[in-house]
């Protein structure tokens, strides 16, 4: 999903980004049970920005209820960063895993009710003040320190946005295996308390999406890569709706 200069992709481990389905003013993706995923943040702008991430209504940094007052990840200009999971210390995260509602992290922590939604609020950086002649300035920076990646591309802080899915999702996001996700301190001063853009992605099982009326795309099997895919057949492959020698009804 892209909003202006900011983009969010949900990428299951080992696969390309999940297909997105616009439906009744919302954007949906398919979640596959027991499949881990990362949330990829992309900053297409020429400025540093902060992206605050929420999963199932909880902050990915500390598991608290998400809000716009929470802090997030800072991305450098024209950069991207994959959020690997729920942060458990400055070096590791517990991977995001599509699970049932009862197995979701939010449900197990007694904060269920918002399963099936991923939100990212994007904040612009406050420009540095231009000093005036003969004006004293304090050397002390009163802005709070928060976490950022060791590569200098992200900054983490304290919670996420709240975004509620329409209807009860069949799924939630679990607390998966530990993965490496090193972070270091960084600072970021927001230009405004109101985000410049908000991206919200709803997710559910294939069965529920189809029940809603969403027609899912078929994913090609990428487990076997071919050097010359155009040489695999001399004939036209029938479409899915064609059975035998007639069209299905």
What features would you describe in this structure?
The protein is mainly beta and 249 residues long. The chain has helices at residues 105-108, 206-212; strands at 2-3, 6-12, 21-23, 26-30, 36-43, 49-55, 58-59, 73-75, 79-83, 85-89, 92-100, 117-124, 146-149, 155-156, 171-180, 183-186, 197-204, 242-243, 246-247. Strands 1, 2, 5, 9, 10, 11 and 15 form a 7-stranded antiparallel beta sheet that branches. Strands 3, 4, 6, 7, 8, 12 and 17 form a 7-stranded mixed beta sheet that branches. It has a 3-stranded antiparallel beta sheet with strand order 14-13-16, with no helix packed on it. It starts with a strand and ends with a strand. It contains 2 helices and 19 strands.
Chart the SSEs and their pairings:
Layout: E1 2-3, E2 6-12, E3 21-23, E4 26-30, E5 36-43, E6 49-55, E7 58-59, E8 73-75, E9 79-83, E10 85-89, E11 92-100, H1 105-108, E12 117-124, E13 146-149, E14 155-156, E15 171-180, E16 183-186, E17 197-204, H2 206-212, E18 242-243, E19 246-247
Parallel strand pairs: 4-17
Antiparallel strand pairs: 1-2, 2-5, 3-4, 5-9, 5-11, 6-7, 6-8, 6-12, 10-11, 11-15, 12-17, 13-14, 13-16, 18-19
Q: Rounded to an integer, what's the Rg over CA atoms?
A: 21 Å
Average pLDDT works out at 80
Beta-strand share of residues? 35-45%
Uncertain residue segments? 134-166
Topology, number of strands: 19
Q: Quote the distance from N terminus to C terminus.
A: 34 Å
Listing every helix as H and every strand as E from the N terminus to the C terminus, the arrangement reads EEEEEEEEEEEHEEEEEEHEE
Shape: globular
Structural class: mainly beta
- Main sheet attributes: strand count, strand direction, barrel closure: 7 strands, antiparallel
Helix content: under 10%
Can you count the helices?
Answer: 2
